[in-house]
Amino acid sequence: MASELESAFAYHEPSTKTVLNYTGFLLIPNIANTCLDKLLYCGLISQLLIGVLWGTPGAQWFDQETERVIQQIWYLGLILLIYEGGLSTSIKALKANILLSTAVAITGICVPMGLPFILKELVSATYLQSFAAAAALSATSLGSTFTILSTTQLITTRLGVVTTSDAMLDDVVGLVTIQIISNVGSADSFSAVTVIRPVFVAGTSESLCCLLCRSDCLLV
User: Fold this and answer.
1) Helix (H) or strand (E) segment spanning residue 118
2) Second label for 193, Cα 20 to 30 Å away, from 54, 142, 159, 161?
3) Cation/H+ exchanger transmembrane domain: which residues (predicted)?
4) What is the reported pLDDT for 214?
């Protein structure tokens, strides 16, 4: 009986400080988000700033375990947000603007990717450091893009379609390059597999998604 009690999760009422801390973290970002969305359409910035203020490296009112839980819940919310953005995107408008979206995406990838290599002599950076900076600059926050476009009611316009398509392509390239950097940093020696594997996985996933979408359209 004692072992069962020890292995069970005991309930303890949270302290007043904890309740006020969590309540403030839930209410203040939403209030600030609503106010700034009505005034400047930038409520997302207030949520980011309040998150930094509440956690690390701000006031550190949350311990690391709580921050990990919040981060995991946030990741689930990000997945749902991107899924919602994908559902609200018009396939017909996407096909009509695919060339423009591709051109914008290529520009958004090539310019940030090339800039660190051009400026690397100013800070005596290595090629790997320049590549890491290029990967960070080329990636676009898809979740932030969907949030801002939804707030401004532009997600169904041509600008919104081109922007979301560009963000998707940029994110794919950014995630692939980040994975390459991670593999290079963790590997003892550089090999072609380090670069080819993330590219192959990303290309295969994209191809399968396109085939599935095409088959669904044919069935409908």
Assistant:
1) helix 98-123
2) 142
3) 44-202
4) 65
